[in-house]
Write a structure and sequence with these properties.
The complex is a heterodimer.
Chain A (H helix, E strand, L loop, with lengths): L1 E2 L3 E3 L5 E9 L1 H4 L9 E2 L10 H20 L8 E6 L5 H10 L3 E3 L6 H15 L4 E8 L1 H8 L15 E2 L2 E8 L6 E6 L14 H20 L8 E4 L3 H14 L8 E4 H4 L12 E2 L1 H18 L4 E9 L3 H5 L6 E9 L4
Parallel strand pairs in A: 3-4, 5-6, 5-7, 8-13, 11-12, 11-14
Antiparallel strand pairs in A: 1-2, 2-10, 3-9, 7-9, 10-15, 14-15
Chain B lengths: L17 H10 L6 H29 L4 H21 L3 H8 L1 H4 L2 H14 L5 H8 L4 H22 L6
The chains are: A alpha/beta, B mainly alpha.
InterPro entries (chain B): Spore_V_AC, SpoVA
Pfam family, one (chain B): SpoVAC_SpoVAEB
Protein name (chain B): Stage V sporulation protein AC
């Protein structure tokens, strides 16, 4: 189970038997459009508030994931979920709809892998046979809560990121067909004093570096063991910083493909998303929609997903606090070895 | 559960102090073109002012108003235009390009109030719209009033500037 300092090894090989993603219009306009289960053409999704729209995303993703897994709602034992809203309300309302025992978690944008790690831990230890991990974010709810009203005309700097509208859910099971969760490395909170909430990539990069290094040190693996290593939402500012930091510390990142979900979900040059995507939904839709499909097809044998989260609140940055950040990494393999 | 140790400490951990990292990150940050932003702000801000002038001329020539009478309806028209563009979801897109050019004129003030009112409509008319409408505009009013107060004091003491 515990291996090294902060990594869980899942000997019982929990399997992701089904996953689903639901996204908004901008993600549907991006390069991964074909990988999503449902693309909403409108940001409001015919709901009365942005918050209701976000909740709908999470409910739909969970429902589709159960369908894709081929299990009934009654078979599901636990639902581990979270989101970016105050008091993680999207998770709570979706859990109300789902009617399954719920553990709500918060790790900002790292919630995707935090929930997947916990779901895998539960399945691996026998605490459940079928556990779903789900998370979501919505561009407009995030703007409203963390920044300004959505229609307010303020110029965003090129370091700012665009919160992904989308939800992803994965059903983890004790047995079955699908990608296998091998390891989860739980990150430490790292804060190197970046205070600019419009530059979260730079704030989060050291957390990603810390977790990726811890993962290699705990497991004895090297970048070469992975066909793909992705960070959650460092985008065009934070991702090169993370790579440079890793290379400086002697981690041969050139031996693998090192990408970022925030740069994969949008066409950064064409779409007006500043540095790239962010949000809980960012790593969730890219991992559950795009990467898992490639793993299932055998195009990727083994991947490491390192979801990054900026644990700031509107209150903390207005009071001049720097941005504490965290990253959680989950290693997934095709399972056919 | 046994604790297994596996080839630990292979990669040395990050050895950067917060200060070093902040400088490192700053040196790799994409720069904002101040010159380009100034030009765009000048063009858009200037266009809005030109539009205001044209509206004022229309009130003077078509409605037979004096220049001073025409200024209030002119501002009202600009505010309505800004509110319409905000509701149509266009004003924030103009602002991303224009920067201060669309924020400083009265249209920017109208946009800040309208966008907050729209955003918080879901929380009801009183606590939502009423309570949040001045969320952004409020500080402009507070500091505008305070600044006016001090300018008034200065005017009283030195008796300079303004019409007598």
């Amino acid at each position: 189970m515990l291996q090294g300092k902060q990594t869980w090894k899942f000997e019982n090989r929990p399997v992701i038997i089904g996953a689903a993603t639901v996204v908004g219009p901008d993600e549907g306009d991006g390069p991964l459009a074909a990988d999503f289960d449902l693309v909403h053409p409108e940001l409001d999704m015919q709901q009365k508030s942005w918050e209701k729209a976000e909740r709908l995303l999470l409910e739909q993703a969970s429902e589709f994931a159960l369908n894709n897994a081929g299990i009934a709602k009654e078979q599901l034992q636990f639902y581990v979920g979270g989101d970016l809203m105050n008091q993680i309300i999207s998770n709570s309302f979706a859990a109300r709809t789902l009617g399954v025992p719920n553990i709500g978690v918060f790790g900002a944008c790292s919630t995707s892998m935090e929930s997947l790690a916990l779901a895998s831990l539960m399945v691996n230890s026998g605490a459940g046979q079928y556990v779903i991990a789900a998370t979501c974010s919505h561009n407009c709810t995030a703007e409203k809560q963390f920044r300004y009203p959505t229609e307010y005309g303020s110029q965003k700097p090129p370091t700012a990121q665009y919160t992904v509208t989308g939800a992803g859910a994965a059903v983890v099971a004790a047995s079955g067909e699908g990608p296998v969760v091998e390891y989860a490395t739980i990150g430490k909170v790292v804060d190197l004093g970046i205070k600019d909430p419009f530059n979260m990539g730079a704030a989060m990069a050291p957390a990603a570096v810390d977790t990726i290094q811890a993962h290699f040190n705990d497991t004895g693996r090297t970048p070469k063991d992975y066909d793909l290593i992705v960070t959650g939402d460092l985008a065009s500012v934070g991702h090169p910083l993370a790579k440079e930091l890793l290379m400086r510390d002697g981690v041969p990142m050139d031996d693998t493909t090192f990408k970022d979900c925030g740069l994969m979900v949008y066409d950064v040059n064409r779409q007006k998303v500043q540095a790239g995507g962010s949000g809980c939904g960012c790593s969730a839709v890219v991992t559950y929609g795009h990467i898992l499909k490639k793993v299932a097809k055998g195009e990727l044998k083994r991947v490491l997903i390192c979801a990054t989260g900026a644990l700031l609140s509107p209150l903390s940055f207005q009071q001049g606090e720097s941005i504490p950040c965290i990253a959680h990494a989950v290693a997934i393999s095709g399972g056919k070895e | 559960m046994a604790v297994k140790s596996a080839g630990g400490g292979k990669y040395r951990k990050m050895s950067m102090s917060p200060k070093e990292y902040q400088a490192f990150a700053k040196s790799r940050e994409p720069s904002r073109s101040i010159f380009g932003n100034c030009i765009r702000a000048f063009l858009v801000g200037g266009t809005i002012c030109l539009l205001g002038q044209a509206i004022q001329q229309l009130f003077i020539h078509l409605a037979g108003m004096k220049p001073q009478e025409a200024s209030n309806p002119t501002v009202a028209v600009l505010i309505i235009l800004s509110v319409i563009l905000t509701c149509a979801g266009v004003y924030d897109k103009i602002a991303q390009w224009a920067g201060a050019g669309s924020a400083v004129p009265v249209t920017g003030f109208a946009n800040s109030m309208c966008s907050a009112a729209l955003e918080h409509r879901s929380e009801g008319l009183v606590l939502g719209v009423g309570g949040n409408m001045f969320k952004l505009a409020g500080s402009v009013i507070v500091f505008g009033t305070v600044a006016a107060f001090f300018v008034g004091i200065a005017h009283l003491i030195f008796g300079t500037g303004g019409a007598h």
